[in-house]
Amino acid sequence: MQVAQSTFNYGVNSYYQNQQDKSVDENPLEEEKSAEFSESDDSKESSESEKSQNENELSADEKQVVYELQARDVEVRAHEAAHQAAGGGMTGGASYSYQRGPDGKMYAIGGEVSISMPKGSTPDELISNAQQVIAAALAPANPSGQDMSVAAGAKAIVLQAQQEKAKEAYESFSKDSKDTKEEDDSSDTKLDISA
């Protein structure tokens, strides 16, 4: 009945699998640039101008890859943020796996958030903590397989804690019943009925 730490891991492998089905080069802009830039304002403007020219120079396939990477980046960050928001103080920071796009920018394509669940000193505390883990695991719109696994583990902990709680209640009830019966036996009422 112990969950020390789990990790919500969102979809790097599924993204790579989808990308392998496509025949687009992963890093088309991995070229060395021979131009040197100074720190002046003119060079910053020319650098920005060259950036927009590079973006305009992307092929239709490269633009499609950039669009897909941008969408994936937004999806991954929202997914991990949902875990963090629902997990409260039990979750750590998000860490991301990145891929460089054809435009030279880095895009998040996978991520994970760690979660540590305190054991709790009572079954009720343990149930409450496990329910928060379940909420955090299932918070994103599309929970991953790892998210479902973490939620299932926390549900098992809830069931164990509920069994422990029921056992304690039964033992307490049994003890109270015995005490009541002993009191009833020891306080026999004697009736003196004379005729």
Task: Describe it.
The chain has a three-stranded antiparallel sheet. Residues 12-43 have low confidence and may be disordered. Helix 3 (60-87) runs antiparallel to helix 4 and helix 4 packs antiparallel against helix 5 (145-186). It has five helices and three strands, in the order E-H-H-H-E-E-H-H. It has one domain. The chain is rod-shaped and about 115 Å long. Strand 2 and strand 3 form a beta hairpin. It has 195 residues and is of the alpha+beta class. Helices cover 56% and strands 14% of the residues. The longest helix has 42 residues, at 145-186.
Protein topology:
Layout lengths: L4 E6 L1 H9 L20 H16 L3 H28 L3 E10 L5 E11 L6 H15 L7 H42 L9
Antiparallel strand pairs: 1-3, 2-3
Helix pairs in contact: 3-4, 4-5
Span of the ends, CA to CA: 68 Å
| Beta-strand fraction estimate | 5-15%
Average pLDDT value?
76
How many structural domains can be distinguished in the coordinates? 1
Note the main sheet: 3 strands, antiparallel
Oligomer: single chain
H/I helix tally = 5
Widest sheet: strand ordering:
1-3-2
Rg (C-alpha, Å): 31 Å
Shape: rod-shaped
Number of strands: 3
Portion of residues within helices: 55-70%
Helix and strand content put the structural class at alpha+beta
Give the low-pLDDT segments.
Answer: 12-43
Helix and strand succession? EHHHEEHH
